[in-house]
Specification:
The chain folds into two domains: 154 residues, Glutaredoxin (3-Layer(aba) Sandwich), CATH 3.40.30.10; 66 residues. Helix content is 45%, strand content 7%. The protein is elongated and about 70 Å long.
Length: 259
């Protein structure tokens, strides 16, 4: 299979991934911007208060809002060689990290988060702030990483957060997604080859029957790719454990029903 060597062959990604696999591996970063409007008259309400730091509790609440997934927060840096270095090591084998990121609320904060008046400064308010941390939505169970951790250490910490947050086991889903990446690469390669072959046949004046046969193969490959994409979406769906917010809402509903 293209893209991934066998277990004894060493690193993953011995060849570049295709476009569909690259899409699946992309991290969906959120870039929150906090603004607080003044109340009052309509023209005044559009004015923005002077920037000031939130409490840590308020900062976590703003980042999470209604997203109950665990947090993966990355601080960008002016001096680092690539803002994602704290998360993605320079090794080739980052696919597991990127696939697991889909089950996190991934937040990227700008370098000026270190300034005392930045709304999210409390998240990095230490003498030696790191670049990356994992945490529950309320900021508890926080684990700070300095970017020097091994891939195995990072995966273990990410998996621990996921096990706490989700009812479903993500490890088997992760393996299935890794297998699907290979399917995507094969299908993308087949689609590109068939498209080129069809164009060549048209330019060379090949018979309509030969061109139609290739088009049927192309349609079949497109259907197979659509099915594989649907499978990836289904595999990625996992159920969160009942959150404190949901438990309180359930308790309130039951209490009102009993009265």
């Amino acid at each position: 299979m293209p893209g991934v060597a066998g277990p004894a062959a060493g690193p993953y990604m011995v060849t570049p991934r295709g476009p569909t696999s690259r899409f699946e591996l992309a991290i969906d970063w959120n870039h929150p911007i906090f603004q607080q409007a003044l109340g009052g008259e309509a023209d005044v309400s559009r004015a923005v208060l002077q920037r000031q730091a939130l409490s840590a509790e308020a900062a976590y609440a703003y980042l999470s809002q209604d997203d109950e997934r665990p947090l993966l927060v990355l601080r960008e840096c002016f001096t680092c060689n690539g803002t994602d270095d704290a998360l993605l090591t320079r090794q080739a084998d980052n696919e597991r990290t990127m696939l697991m990121s889909r089950w996190f609320n991934c937040v990227k904060l700008p370098p000026d988060v270190l300034e005392a008046d930045h709304p999210f400064h409390a998240l990095f308010d230490s003498k030696d702030p790191g670049h990356l941390f994992l945490a529950s939505p309320d900021g508890k169970l926080r684990v700070d990483l300095n970017g020097q951790q091994s891939r195995t250490e990072l995966w273990k910490l990410m998996e621990e957060q996921l096990e706490r947050a989700y009812l479903d086991q993500v490890k088997p889903k992760l393996k299935e997604l890794q297998r699907l990446l290979n399917d995507f690469d094969e299908l993308d390669a087949d689609l590109l080859r068939l498209e080129i072959e069809i164009d060549d046949k048209i330019e060379s004046g090949a018979s309509a029957s030969k061109i139609e046969k290739l088009r049927r193969k192309l349609a079949k490959a497109e259907n197979e790719k659509a099915e594989a994409r649907a499978r990836a979406i289904a595999v990625s769906a996992v159920k969160l454990r009942e959150t404190k917010k949901e438990a309180e809402a359930t308790a309130g509903t039951q209490a009102s029903g009993e009265s």
